[in-house]
Amino acid sequence: MVDPHYYGLIELVLFGAIALGLGFALWWPVRPSKIRAARDAEAARLAERSAQGSAQGSGHAEREHGADER
Question: What predicted TM-score, i.e. pTM, was given to this entire model?
Answer without folding.
Answer: 0.45
